[in-house]
Write a structure and sequence with these properties.
homodimer, about 200 residues, alpha+beta, Pnp Oxidase, Chain A, about 40% strand
Chain lengths: ~200, ~200
Amino acid sequence: MPVAEAYGVMASCIAPRPIAFVSTLSPDGKPNLAPFSYFMAGGSNPPSLAFSPTPDRTGQPKDTLRNIEETGEFVVHIVTYEMREKMNITSSEFPYGVSEWEHSGFTPVLSTHVKPPRAAESPIALECKLFKIIEHGEGFASARYVIGEILTAHIAQEVMTDGEIDTEKVDYLARLGGNYYARAHSEALFELARPPKVQKYPEG
Amino acid sequence: MPVAEAYGVMASCIAPRPIAFVSTLSPDGKPNLAPFSYFMAGGSNPPSLAFSPTPDRTGQPKDTLRNIEETGEFVVHIVTYEMREKMNITSSEFPYGVSEWEHSGFTPVLSTHVKPPRAAESPIALECKLFKIIEHGEGFASARYVIGEILTAHIAQEVMTDGEIDTEKVDYLARLGGNYYARAHSEALFELARPPKVQKYPEG
C-alpha cells in the first residue's frame, strides 16, 4: 500500500485520538505551536506521555521535533471544543521560525519548569522534559515516538469539581480520520464501571 | 503526588483515548485478551502503533506484556460502542492463563501473519509484530511503551464506503477519566477542514 494511502487508513483505524497541542522553542528562542493527534499517556510513575511528529512530505523533521531534539523541553496542552478553530490555524505549514502564536491568537503564559510558554486558553497544560526519541521507519509519515516525562500539570479551576478534573466540564476534542473531529460532551459521554475483580477462577 | 493519585489525573488529562483491545498468546499457546487505552498511532511508513500495558499494583507485568516480550506478536482491535460490555468483562483481573475469550464471549478467528487470533466482533483488527519496548519508570503504573509494526489490517465491509473506512459507520468508543467513556457518532462528530497551506509569510 502506498504511504499516502496508509496514512489515511491509519488515521481512520486508530481513533478517536486525543490532541497534543505542543509548544516548543528553537534554541534561539523562536516559539512554535502545533497540534499532533498521534499521542498517548504512557504511565504515571513517573507521569509520562508520547506523541509522534511524523516527517512531512519532503521527509524533513517537523519544527516541533527539531526544537525538542535541540532543547529537550516542551509543553503539551489538551485541546477543547472551544479551542478548535484557533488550533486548526496552527496546523497550517508556516515556514520555520514563523510564530503560530501570533497567527492563531493563543495567549502565551510563562511555564514553571521549562522555557516554552503555555497557552492560557487550554484548561490542561503539561510541562515536559524529553526522555527519549524512538524512530521507526524513514522519511514521510514514518514514526518518531517522542517520549516525555511530565514535570508539572496546570489544571484550570473551571474544569474541576471538589479538587478533581470533572470529565463533564472539560469538553474534550478528539481527532478521527479525514476531516473528522468528535466532541466528548453531554450525550456522547457515559459511565461504565469495571466489573468486580475475579480473585480466583478454577481452570479448565 | 502519590502514584495512585497521579494515575487518576493522567487518565483525565490525556483524553479521549482510543482503546487497543489486544490479543496475545503465551509461549505455550494460552490466549489473552485485554483493553488498553494508553494507545497511539505512530506513523504509516511503515504503519506503526504503540500502547502501554502498565504494571499492576504489585509491580508485576501484565499478561499481555509478558506474552509480547516472549512471542513478539499481537493483534490490536479497535473497540466500538457495541463491543463495550464484552470488552469491559475482559478488563477484570483474571489469573494468568485464564481465557478472557471464554468469559467475554468474543469469537476468535485465525490471523494471517501472527499466531494470536483476532476477534470477529471488531471491525478493525491490526496484526502486529513487536518492534521495541521502552520502559520509563519502575513498578506500579510506570510506562511500558510497546511499539509494534502493523503487518496487516482487517477492515470489515460494513464500516466502509467506496473502499474507505467511513468514520460515521464505525461507532468508535473512547476512554476518559474515572468510569467515563465517549461514543464518537452522530451529533458528537463534525468536520473541520485544514486551513489552506501558507507557502510564504513575510517575517517580522
